[in-house]
């Protein structure tokens, strides 16, 4: 499996390479705002989509792979998640906020 090395907030970090990402698949990794460190790869836009909570609201937000972003926050991919605890919508799929809150509550 190919990896990518980069500087993440002053720390030398290794993650899965962008070429390893598969459309619609879920990944565990590090991101400042991702709930449960989970994101879903969207090949059409070449970015991850994750769920964020801000001021009590849950919503999806895109974030780049470290190979595409050298300044702002990125999703540092560690491994694929075969059975995600909730669905992260791509495009016009609906976000099931109750399912996400249930997982957040149960940890």
Give a verbal description of the structure.
The protein has 107 residues and is mainly beta. The chain has one domain (3-106). It has one helix at residues 97-106; strands at 3-8, 11-16, 26-30, 38-42, 47-54, 57-63, 76-81. The strands form 2 sheets. The chain has a 5-stranded antiparallel sheet, with no helix packed on it. A two-stranded antiparallel ribbon has the order 1-2. The model has no long low-confidence stretch (mean pLDDT 90).
At a glance:
The protein is mainly beta and 107 residues long.
What topology emerges from the helices and strands here?
Blueprint: E1 3-8, E2 11-16, E3 26-30, E4 38-42, E5 47-54, E6 57-63, E7 76-81, H1 97-106
Antiparallel strand pairs: 1-2, 3-4, 3-7, 4-5, 5-6
What descriptive keywords fit this protein?
107 residues, mainly beta, two-stranded antiparallel sheet, 5-stranded antiparallel sheet
- Report the total helices: 1
Helix content percent band? under 10%
How many domains in all?
1
Strand order of the largest sheet: 6-5-4-3-7
Tell me what portion of residues adopts beta-strand conformation. Answer: 35-45%
Compute the average pLDDT. Answer: 90
Largest sheet: 5 strands, antiparallel
Rg over C-alpha atoms, rounded to the nearest angstrom:
13 Å
Distance between the termini: 30 Å
Structural class: mainly beta
